[in-house]
Amino acid sequence: MIVNTELETKGNLFPGEVKVFEFDGNSVTFSTANNVLLRITVLRDSILRFRYATDGIFENDFSYAIDKDTMHGFNKFEIQEAPFLITIITSKIKCKISTTDLKIGIYDLQDNVIVEEELGFHWEESFKYGGNFVKMNKTSVEGENFFGLGDKPTNFNLKGRKLTLWNKDQFAFNKDLDELYKSVPFYTALHSNMAYGIFFDNSFRTHFDFCQDKRNEVKFWAEGGEMNYYFIYGPKIAEVVTSYTNLTGTPDLPPLWALGYHQSKWSYFPEERVTELAAKFRELEFPCDAIHLDIDYMDDFKCFTWNNKHFPDPKLMVENLEEKGFKTVVIIDPGIKIDADYKIFKEALDNNYFCRRADGPFMRGKVWPGECYFPDFTNPKVREWWAGLFKELVGEIGVKGVWNDMNEPAVMEVPGKTFPTDVRHNYDGNDCSHRKAHNIYGMQMARATHDGVRKYAFPKRPFTMTRANFAGGQRYCATWTGDNIATWEHLWLANTQVQRLCLSGMSFTGSDIGGFAEQPSGELFTRWIQLGIFHPFCRVHSSGDHGNQEPWSFGEEVLSITREYVRLRYQLLPYLYTAFYQYTEEGIPILKPLVYFDQEDVHTYYRSDEFIFGNQILVCPIQDAHVQGRRVYFPRGKWYNFWNDEIVTGGKEYWVDAPLEKSPIFIKEGAIIPKFPVQNYVDEIEIKALFLDIYYKNGNETSILYEDAHDGYDYKKGRYSLKTFKFRGKPGEIIIQQHKDGKFLTSYKHLEVRIHGLPFEIEKAYLDNEEVSLETLDFDPTVNTMKIPKVFDLIQFTSKAKS
Ligand code: GLC
Predict the structure, then answer these.
(1) Mind spelling out the 3-state secondary structure of 236-249?
(2) For 685-718, what is each residue's pLDDT tens digit?
(3) Pfam families of this UniProt entry (predicted)?
């Protein structure tokens, strides 16, 4: 394939002059003299879709990535014609199409350049496979930055990098390794305080070059399929990312327990070991909600079986764990062992559900069980069959979560570690080879698993996770960053990758805390927990070959520090759950990299150590050994040190002390942070009071709190509570207004409030404009704590009586 820019102008084909263009309500289609079609569809005022065809016909319009329920409606769609130029105008942008060469330029309404094209669309015929290699070159303006692209283990800002998307099992991967488990062909670009996004909806092997070959050029191309991409205008990064996430869909809310701490290892067996593990967590009062069983729970690694020697009565074990507050999560891989006596194998064989090579034989490959065949999850019938297989595991045995692995798909001992590209797939009725289906195989397996677990977990919510994924796969599953290593560099990588995934629509994600391969020191484990408790998915997992990785394996000090941090996560669950609500409802990422938080501040463009957890907590993990602190960049605004309430004014870097027990955590001033009491597992105790930590600000700040029954689907019928707290503070007075939406009634009656950083002494309190005595509120002036009833519209504290 031609990727050299000089050759591009020689060996590639380009659109000719536009001969006709047609308008049909929400799109315009251009045809050129050499039979190229370009259809530009306006999805929203800030979202345009571009599709190109080179033989005068479009392929069947089918995408696994796009969430069909979203994206309709725009305010304005106007077309202006001028010599050699057609302009599409919406209420947000102008898109200019040159009729001489079909090159596109996109501008804001003041004609500022957002992005223009260099070579623009071009293609190369693929004689080997048929079809085209489709390519796009755009110009990059001075100072442009690039973010996104899924799980790439590289620097956060992608400027100067060339990357490929091809899902790959990469045990013990290293920094800057290119092909990894997931493919998310979406990036956000930022220049001149304007952000836009490109989502290249093409599941073939795709490539991106962010100004590496040429410093003023961005390229993306695919080894087949259509040039089919979405342009998303901001101008805020937040708008680009949420629009992309809505375009490709969001998941339902997970059950609250899934946001607790998970403990995993390859593998906990036999049953006695699992029971001991569970008992140890409770004995040490180390919070934990889920125990994961890796491949050894199965009989001979055969999916949907149990090793009866090690697990004689799985249902009873799962019940016993449940009684102690543990949910059981089990692994399920795609490889089905070739074994004529194995029911699942026979069913799939009889129904022709396995993938085949081009000339007919089944796709055969080695994974944990030895030689396997692989279901074609791109076939809707196969997905339905697969979903049904969870009846026993979830519906009868009571397993609460399923973890899909090796679904890149991974094949052992073969070049490329995956299927050969001739393997055939159904692709939901759009028959194709593995070249097209490879990157979405894992996503479709995850989808089938999710459908099954959801069905049999009902009326509870499912928990599913997957290692491989594609854009849009966030609708089905949580994910993790795969087989990392217990090194400081991997702690840094985990931080970067999880932020990157959050900017790529996949917020429900975390890393193998402590590292999967090798063994961490107690110090590394502690620092990793201090990061991991702020990741949307929080699980300790390790290969187990290199020693134990339970929190008590590193001695008393590590145990007691990590327990405090995991307890902090449990205290912050209402805050985290609210961030999940905003993610699932509005597509807002749960972690916000600093550039997302404040894109006007150029200091954030290359920062990735610090991030915002939810909306108002700044976290900066310690990522080096033997340090007692670090420099932290504070975004603009004022921040309270979580540990001592000292106030820091942002827009600058400061040294922050961080002995092993103190990881840097800061709270935005004006924030109202909801907290639960410490629990050993979600719903262990009935919540009698919700804690609200209020951080005084001379000014205004809005905080929100989402609550529901923690599980089940009543929230979809309006049984949720969404509270908005509007804080207004000035010397001598604070006012908090509360507004509630939704029908859910929380079980607690009052709020335990604590006001931090209050610059005056409270003398008077008013609830809905009626004065209340401070004694009835149990007011403690030494720490500014009090109890207030949960129902109020307005509460006011003043340093003197109201005049
Ligand atoms: C893969 C997974 C890992 C798992 C192992 C055994 O390496 O990434 O998490 O423990 O397989 O199933």
Answers:
(1) CHHHHHHHHHHHHC
(2) 999 999 999 999 999 999 999 999 999 999 999 9
(3) DUF5110, Gal_mutarotas_2, Glyco_hydro_31_2nd, Glyco_hydro_31_3rd
Do 393 and 402 form a contact (C-beta atoms < 8 A)?
yes
Distance (Å) from CA 509 to ligand 1 centroid? 16
pLDDT in tens, 295-340: 999 999 999 999 999 999 999 999 999 999 999 999 999 999 999 9
Catalytic residues: 405, 408, 483
Q: Which atom of ligand 1 is nearest to the CA of 541?
A: 9
Q: Distance, CA 266 to ligand 1 centroid (Å)? A: 7
Q: Whose CA is nearest to atom 3 of ligand 1?
A: 483
Task: Provide CB contacts within 8 A for 803, sequence distance 6+.
Answer: none
Q: Is 405 in the pocket of ligand 1 (CB under 6 A)?
A: yes
294 lines ligand 1 (CB under 6 A): yes
- Using CA of residue 399, residue 402, residue 403, residue 409, what is the dihedral sign? positive
Task: Say if ligand 1 is within 6 A of residue 482 CB.
Answer: yes
* Mean pLDDT in residue range 84-108: 98
Reduce the secondary structure of 169-204 to three states and give it as a string.
CCCCCCCCCCCCCEECCEEEEEECCEEEEEEECCCC
Q: Give the Cα-Cα-Cα angle 180, 185, 188 (nearest 5 degrees).
A: 115
Helix (H) or strand (E) holding 210: strand 206-210
Beta bridge partners of 208: 163, 220
Q: The tokens of 705 are what?
A: 């709190």
Report the atom number in ligand 1 closest to the C-alpha of 294.
Answer: 12
CA angle 168, 173, 178 (to 5 degrees): 55
Number of H helices and E strands in the chain, helices first, is: 13, 51
Nearest atom in ligand 1 to the alpha carbon of residue 543 is: 10
Which residue CA neighbors atom 10 of ligand 1 most closely? 266
Question: How far apart are the CA of 417 and the centre of ligand 1, in A?
Answer: 15
Unique residue bearing structure tokens 């069913």: 347
pLDDT in tens, 18-30: 999 999 989 999 9
Distance (Å, whole) CA 723 – CA 728? 16
If we measure between CA atoms, which residue out of 398, 386, 269 comes closest to residue 334? 386
CA of 263 to the centre of ligand 1 (A): 14
- pLDDT tens track for 629-679: 999 999 999 999 999 999 999 999 999 999 999 999 999 999 999 999 999
DSSP state of 375: B
DSSP H helical ranges for 432-535: 434-457, 488-502, 522-532
Strands 162-165 and 463-466: unpaired
Q: Look at phi and psi of residue 601 and say left if phi exceeds 0, alpha if psi is from -120 to 50, else beta.
A: beta
